[in-house]
Amino acid sequence: MKLLLLIIIVYLVYRAGKSWVMRNLQAPGQNGSRSPRIDDVMVQDPVCGIYFPQREGVELRHGGQTFVFCSTVCRDRFLEKQNGQKSA
Ligand SMILES: [Zn+2]
Question: What residues have their beta carbon closer than 5 A to ion ligand 1?
């Protein structure tokens, strides 16, 4: 009778301990809810076509759209195209 009681206690402790461990394993994951930063978003330059990190690009708002260029050179080329709408 004592042995059975011991087994039940061990079983309950084991179950409680397991769920406690599971909770503690999952807790750190919830701490990683920092504000999402768009650091490494790769975008394509619409002028020269290369891919680069958006944070290093040059942003331009044009016609309700936001374009990102690899450099001010490409941005200027884009603006030249937009301003001089000649048929190339
Ligand atoms: Zn470019």
Answer: 45, 47-48, 70, 74
